[in-house]
Specification:
This protein is mainly alpha-helical. It has helices at residues 13-39, 49-58, 66-73, and strands at 46-48, 82-84. A two-stranded antiparallel ribbon has the order 1-2. GO terms for molecular function: calcium ion binding.
């Protein structure tokens, strides 16, 4: 991303803000994708009920009703409960 939008040879305040907001957004999206990828062990782009259950077990969290959680977040309404990752389709502007 070129910060000097008006090609003046310097970056004014508005250009600085625009560039940093863009970088902040990219960083947040990268962090979200990294967190999602931690749960998505098989790299399918989905977090299955089994993968979520394993993550809870890894952290020693017991007595979690994973099936109920999946029903609340499963917007795809698929037969096998999964959470999908829409972040894989993000195209970063350069």
């Amino acid at each position: 991303m070129q910060a000097d939008v008006d090609n003046s040879g310097s970056i004014d305040y508005g250009e600085f803000i625009a560039a940093t907001l863009h970088l902040n957004k990219v960083q947040k999206e990268d962090n979200l994708f990294a967190a999602f990828s931690y749960f998505d062990k098989d790299g399918s782009g989905y977090i299955t009920q089994d993968e979520l259950q394993r993550a809870f077990e890894e952290f020693g969290i017991e007595d979690v009703q994973v099936e109920e959680m999946m029903k609340e977040v499963d917007q795809n309404n698929v037969s096998a409960p999964v959470i999908s990752c829409g972040l894989k389709s993000i195209n970063y502007l350069s």
